[in-house]
Amino acid sequence: MLAYMKRQWFLVLIAGLLFATILYYVYDQNKDNLPAKSVGGKDVVFSVAGTDVTTDELYTNLYNQGGLDIIYMLFERSVVQAAVETTDVMTTKAGVDVEGVKTNFSDYYGADAYETYLVEALKSMGYTKLEDLTDYFIYTYKLQELTNAHIDTNMDTLFANFQLTNQPRVVSHVLVMMDDPTTPTAEETARFEEAKAAYANGMSFEDVVLNYSDDTSNNTNKGSLGYMDITTQYEENFLNAALALTEAGQVSDWVQTSYGWHLIRVDAMDLESLKEYQEFYTAILSTDATLQANVIWSKAKELNVDFLGNDELKAEILTYMGIEE
Amino acid sequence: MKKLLSLLILALFLSGCGNKVTSISNPNDALIKIGSTSVTTGQVYTSLLAQDPAAAVKLMATQIILNKEVEMTAEMTTKAQTQLEEFKASVGESLDMYLSYYGYKTIDDYYTNGILPTLQQEVLVNTYLTTNFDAVAASNQPKKVRIIEVTDAALAETALAEIKAGTDFGTVAATYSTTSYPGDEEIVYAASELAEVVLTWMSQQSAPTLSMVIPDTTNSTNYIVQITEADANKFKEEIIAFFALDTVFMEEALKEAFVRNGFKIYDRTVYDSFIITYADYIAK
Question: Is the pLDDT of residue B157 over 90?
Answer without folding.
Answer: yes
